[in-house]
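Section 5.1 Outputs to date
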Amino acid sequence: MRKLVALPVLSADALSSVAYGPEAMLAVLVLAGGAGLRYSVPIAVTIVFLMLAVGVSYRQTIRAYPHGGGSYIVATANLGRVPGLAAAAGLMTDYILTVAISIASGMAAVTSAIPSLRTDVVPIGVVVIAVLLAGNLRGVRQAGALFAAPTYAFVIAVLVLVATGLSDAADRGFQPTPTPQLTATESVSLLLVLRAFASGSTAMTGIEAISNAVPAFQPTEWRNARTTLTWMVGLLVALFAGTIALVHLDGVVPSTNETVLSQLAHRTFGSGFLYVFTQAATAAILLLAANTAYNDFPRVLYLLARDHQAPRAFLRLGDRLAFSNGIILLSIAAAAIYAAFGGRTGPLIPLYAVGVFLAFTLSQTGMVVHWWRLRDRHWRKSLAFNATGALLSAIVLITAAITKFTEGAWFAVLTVGLFILVTTRIRHHYDTVRAAVALHPHAVEVPSRTITPPSPGTGMPRATRPEAPSEVPAEAEAESEETPEEIHPLSIVPIAALDQAGMRALAYAASLQQPVLALHISSSADEAQRFRDYWNLWGDHLPLKIVLSPYRAIVAPLVNYIESLHHQRPDLTLTVILPEIVVRHGRHRLLHSRLAARLRRALRPLPKVVVTTVPFHL
């Protein structure tokens, strides 16, 4: 992506937090009345410093990980598996709440302008999540001017709002407008200030998005990513600080009926076009921010599944080249949380802060270890930046966890703990399976002779769908065999790895004393060559066909190849023999793909195709 496109697309999450971060801070301070609101400016200055420190520290991450360095990757590589899982838990909590909070805040912006919709925020928000689900399952991507427009519109709207508001304040000598008479329900205390600081710090969410997406930039990727990050942090500081300054000068206080940003726009622009534009831009960028999670959440699940710490189903790409299972899980979780909290932003903030700053802290701590081990040019300066970011993030994390524990932070802490426990158990199960199916000497007898498939006359078919299947005579397609002699069989054994389960399926196919073809789906040419080398080492006892599937799809390439072979040789009865892991406990079934069932559904329309499985019991 060009920087002009990457900036709005990757910054939507961070910049949109201006719509709810300042308000979350003020909602805590207002509990102490006017005395509490006086602390808004000092706390905002501290948060701005935190933004700058974390932004500079992520510039070091981009330099160290030019191919993308998300919190999970950095923490796992430098701190170990458990800290990496904790970072992943923080990220996934962050992404789920990004959807819920962005939709809630977007609905608040809409209902501020259209109060009559206030009673319907939950069903409308759930419908919006359903629309995001449908769009992402169909392969919608965040690219181009369409997705850049909401962010630029929001930035322009808030900058015009701040500039106009400051101009009006200058006319009165920057004298703050007195706040309305407030009734204090709490006294000003250190605990109150810390709670406000933790809530306001949620305006930093999304800062790490650019460090995750470095390969998406035009060359030189890391340099363009760092430049974009600098612009994003600069805009975030300007929007956040400008909003707080206007709140202070205009004497605005949080209200249950209208957002702070809407109040500022009303005071500055009235109820005309600029007000409507500001509210529409706010709702649009929050919708875009919610959509960013649909790229990042499935990606983290994919990385976990690749490392055997999440079900393998999350490795699979759908027909539209999207991680469909991760997208569905994100939508269900976000919709459940959104509905459970009544579509309100305030109660969700305590859960948000813990996940965001847990990922920040572990990522930056991992970078400290990285520089300490590497010790290349300028490593001391980079280490100092990352250490500062890690320390400040840890302070916010501890503050949020303690001060907001009873307000919902306990749920986030519990979720992280359960996530680590579950993913660790998943890893243990996969390790157990891998040890059980690993080949050892004389584990499986090889076929006594090579059994070859019949030649279709023009060579083995390619794994592509034929252009004109109608050329096959109708009588050849009919299933008219009535005696065994009329059936001409060919066994096809899809095999993912040379392990005991795969060898047993091959041995079973060979034992039928009919032609056998082994079929392997590879995601790259290198992986295909590795499998070919293993196959030759085994002895190349059976013919092998390798099909490349660069998008890691399994079922579609299998079906395409079998359909192609069927159309070229309609006289053959094809038996697809699949190895199947049979687990002892029902809870482990979700960890293994149901390839046979999916393949049966896909091949059911084809005549003379049989799908069977060879179980391997653990």
